[in-house]
Recover the amino acids of this structure.
């Protein structure tokens, strides 16, 4: 094998596909971060008390900070005759919009019950659009557990918005995926300093800033779970820029390099803009890498962020992944990541009991998992990192690389601390 | 369809999970879509359990719907039995599975599992969490309880304590020790920490202690009917109720009602002069019916508060709640809509709110003191320390918990006497509440929680729009501590309206104060 052979990493690794009990959130959970991002949007779930209870449990205290989401709870009489349900829903929406006149985008979000009884939310959305447009734009998508897992809710939401975006013939760059505002600003600043103009974000903070799309649009994903949104944009003629995801110094650099190349940025400009933040990111990560180096890593499936994060933890922090689970593996989007990821066991889907058996046998140093598993695993002597935090916390791009590594080193430092043997 | 932002109760299958998780040796197979496993985290995070709840979800997906979800269920049930080898299983459907109409009970029985399998029928679209827990305990008891002789010694069962119950862990410990002092042993406490084998010998007890009617009443009634076991009706929350409870138990068991009260401190704490300032403080009480009604009695009869609002979110208990509220001269609020609760609180203008996690948020927004007396609660109300609500130690806990958020008596005086002082300006708030330490602006005194104040003032203004406050009187009003200012304004306007006065002067203000003095 010559040194020139391109690294193949996990590109050809066989993937263990499992089917059984899944310990994951449904797509409704995406509402919790999406509604913070889209400041004039309201998310109305059409579902059961379980859906309302899920949102409440997952959102914790956030629900009292003037939430812009709610659940239209189906009652027995709604199940009896479907014609009623549409009328009822329209009435609830009327009341909601009159109470919240600041709402510009309304998402009717389907759930398992509404999908099973085949409640046609698209028809309701159409009718409501006719009545309240153009001041309020009504969309619908499904965040049901039977169709979507956790972050796929964001994919379904953004994909539903794409057909409604205005058409443009201009050349523009679309950065796709909900990012915390501070991260979005950093991203925009880096791109601007490279001389890239006409950058827009999907989703935008407000409906009035919604991006335009057309055949001269190029787009790039910031999150790995946006397969449907990517397809929807391609159907509008936009072209995807292929890149790894902007986690860690390497991921961010590769991501920016892909954009720079596509936009014809000079190499010198690229280096000049990225040199300082790259150095900062490497330095910030190094502090945590000391704790993480040589530690084994096991990731339960949760958000589809597992593969890019395992890549970052392995390559920049020196961790040794022993199993990387993902709820869904989209090869088309994940290829650049798989090429970089060191050889490891990959699993897609889940049978949680079998996976726990493998986990117990491997005894990894750090386990990334959901909240339902974390405390039981801690009690069994394993160090864990809750996966959900990775979606809520700013973790993308250079300035967050240290924080990202810190999320994983903290549980290990804490264990050492409580044992009275700080590392 | 009903638009909901907050729900006081989860769906009924969460109630069933609370029973399964409370017990040992029981496994619950729940026919539910992917995502419903979120409920696990209530137990592992809020209650901080160190094991996974004993629940297997079938987690069907869209692709399974066209195919065979029934087979999926059977495979999950068989797999759960093989792996966990439970003494008994319960099987049921969540809201979505209820719609696809597989029959978990029937499917499980075709498997011929070598343990009792109890099917649950929980109507997800009409009932809620407490019903689910109550019904699950009843179903398990009916299936498992065996006729047996009474124990030789006098024993009783303790019924109703579940996983995710508000202070259930410590209440059971407190009541067990109280009963022990009376010479009564506990036969079985269920469902918390009980096994299916324990449920089988429930009928051996001489009577039942029903601690939580929300989750144990159906079982208590069934045991009364089927096994002739009477059950206690008094909920031992507060010193008075605990004494009544002791008397009731003593009568049922035929033992002496003398119990050592050496460690009961609430009555003296409350009688001491330090507590005089608590007299007539306006309190609004909301929660589950059991805790709310018990709290009202303690508030009025043991601490000397004025109960200005009382209600519950569980409609099942609307009737006793209405009767109780009448005793306090208020109309019961029966609602599971937190916006209605918020409106009632604003209208009642209390100085203290006793409620759930939601009322705590409402109180924070309105700038009113608050203590938690009932589920639903967050992680901080599953404390590490011993903190029952029931029995004599429970009474001590109640006193400390409720008094703590109130501005202390002396501090209240200081705030009034030195109200113009830079350190004691209104917005400084009580010293033991964090996050309020804002310096007073040079010119004008800040109104804390402007939302709440504005809302109350607007409501008052709507009532008395014809009234006109003279600038002097308005300034004087500002000197009144913020937490009673809205009430002072309202009383003054009411007084002025009654007297036919349209211009409010400083004199009107003080005349009204004298008129409404308590």
């Amino acid at each position: 094998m010559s040194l020139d052979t391109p690294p193949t990493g996990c590109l050809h690794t066989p993937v263990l596909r499992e089917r059984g009990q899944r310990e994951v959130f449904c797509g409704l959970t995406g509402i919790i971060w999406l509604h913070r991002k889209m400041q004039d949007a309201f998310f109305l779930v059409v579902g059961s008390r379980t859906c309302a209870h899920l949102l409440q449990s997952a959102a914790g205290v956030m629900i009292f900070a003037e939430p812009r989401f709610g659940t239209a709870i189906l009652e027995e009489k709604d199940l009896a005759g479907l014609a009623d349900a549409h009328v009822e829903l329209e009435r609830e929406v009327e009341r909601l919009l009159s109470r919240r006149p600041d709402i510009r985008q309304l998402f009717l979000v389907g759930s398992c019950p509404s999908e099973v009884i085949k409640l046609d939310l698209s028809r309701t959305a159409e009718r409501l659009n006719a009545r309240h447009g153009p001041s309020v734009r009504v969309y619908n998508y499904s965040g049901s557990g039977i169709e979507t897992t956790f972050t796929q809710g964001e994919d379904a939401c953004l994909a539903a918005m794409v057909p409604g975006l205005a058409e443009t013939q201009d050349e523009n760059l679309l950065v796709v995926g909900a990012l915390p505002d501070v991260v979005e600003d950093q991203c925009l600043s880096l791109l601007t300093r490279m001389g890239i103009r006409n950058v827009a974000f999907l989703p935008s903070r407000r409906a009035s800033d919604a991006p335009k799309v057309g055949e001269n649009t190029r787009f790039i994903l910031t999150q790995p779970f946006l397969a449907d949104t990517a397809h929807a944009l391609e159907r509008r003629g936009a072209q995807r820029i292929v890149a790894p995801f902007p986690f860690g110094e390497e991921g961010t650099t590769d991501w920016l390099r892909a954009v720079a190349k596509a936009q014809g940025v000079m190499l010198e400009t690229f280096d000049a803009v990225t040199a300082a933040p790259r150095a900062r990111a490497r330095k910030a990560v190094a502090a945590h890498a000391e704790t993480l180096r040589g530690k084994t890593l096991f990731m339960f499936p949760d958000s589809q962020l597992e593969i890019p994060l395992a890549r970052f933890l392995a390559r920049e922090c020196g961790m040794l992944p022993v199993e990387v689970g993902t709820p869904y593996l989209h090869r088309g989007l994940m290829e650049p990541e798989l090429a970089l990821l060191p050889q490891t066991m990959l699993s897609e889907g889940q049978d949680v009991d079998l996976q726990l058996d493998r986990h117990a046998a491997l005894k990894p140093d750090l386990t990334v998992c959901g909240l339902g598993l974390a405390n039981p695993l801690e009690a069994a002597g394993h160090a864990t990192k809750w996966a959900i935090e990775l979606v809520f916390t700013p973790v993308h791009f250079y300035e967050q690389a240290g924080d990202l590594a810190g999320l994983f080193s903290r549980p290990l430092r804490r264990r050492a601390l409580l044992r009275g043997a700080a590392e | 369809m009903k638009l909901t932002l907050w729900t006081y109760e989860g769906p009924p299958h969460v109630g069933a999970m609370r029973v399964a998780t409370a017990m040992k040796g029981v496994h619950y197979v729940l026919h539910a879509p992917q995502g419903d496993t979120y409920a696990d985290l209530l137990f592992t995070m809020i209650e901080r359990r160190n094991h996974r709840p004993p629940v297997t979800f079938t987690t069907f997906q869209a692709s399974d719907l066209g195919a065979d979800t029934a087979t999926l269920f059977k495979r999950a049930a068989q797999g759960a039995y093989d792996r966990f080898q439970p003494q008994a299983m319960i099987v049921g459907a969540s809201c979505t599975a209820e719609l696809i109409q597989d029959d978990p009970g029937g499917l499980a029985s075709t498997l011929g599992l070598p343990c009792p399998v109890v099917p649950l029928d929980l109507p997800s679209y009409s009932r809620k969490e407490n019903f689910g827990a109550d019904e699950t305990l009843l179903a398990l008891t009916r299936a498992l309880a065996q006729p047996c002789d009474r124990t030789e010694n006098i024993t009783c069962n303790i019924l109703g304590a579940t996983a995710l119950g508000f202070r259930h862990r410590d209440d059971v410990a407190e009541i067990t020790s109280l009963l022990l002092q009376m010479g009564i042993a506990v036969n079985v406490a269920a469902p918390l920490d009980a096994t299916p084998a324990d449920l089988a010998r429930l009928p051996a007890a001489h009577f039942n202690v029903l601690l939580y009617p929300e989750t144990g009443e159906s079982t208590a009634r069934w045991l009364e009917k089927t096994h002739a076991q009477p059950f206690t009706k008094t909920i031992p929350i507060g010193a008075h109720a605990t004494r009544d409870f002791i008397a009731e138990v003593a009568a049922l068991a035929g033992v002496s009602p003398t119990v050592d009260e050496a460690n009961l401190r609430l009555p003296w704490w409350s009688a001491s002069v330090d507590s005089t300032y608590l007299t007539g403080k306006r309190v609004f009480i909301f929660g589950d019916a059991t805790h709310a009604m018990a709290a009202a009695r303690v508030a009025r009869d043991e601490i000397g508060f004025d109960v200005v609002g009382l209600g519950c979110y569980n409609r099942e208990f609307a009737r006793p709640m209405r009767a109780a509220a009448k005793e306090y001269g208020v109309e019961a609020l029966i609602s599971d809509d937190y916006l209605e609760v918020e409106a009632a609180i604003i209208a009642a203008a209390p100085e203290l709110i006793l409620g759930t996690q939601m009322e705590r948020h409402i109180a924070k927004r309105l700038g009113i003191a608050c203590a938690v007396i009932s589920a639903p609660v967050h992680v901080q109300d599953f404390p590490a320390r011993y903190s029952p609500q029931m029995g004599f130690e429970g009474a001590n806990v109640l006193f400390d918990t409720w008094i703590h958020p109130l501005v202390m008596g002396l501090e209240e005086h200081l705030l009034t006497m030195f109200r113009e002082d830079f350190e004691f300006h209104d917005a400084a708030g009580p010293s033991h509440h964090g996050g309020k330490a804002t310096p007073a602006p040079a010119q004008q005194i800040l109104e804390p929680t402007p939302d709440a104040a504005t809302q109350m003032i607007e409501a008052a203004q709507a009532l008395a729009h014809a009234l006109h406050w003279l600038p002097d009187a308005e300034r004087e009003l500002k000197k009144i501590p913020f937490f009673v200012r809205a009430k002072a304004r309202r009383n003054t306007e009411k007084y002025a309206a009654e007297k036919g006065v349209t211009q409010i002067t400083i004199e009107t203000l003080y005349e009204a104060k004298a008129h409404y003095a308590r």
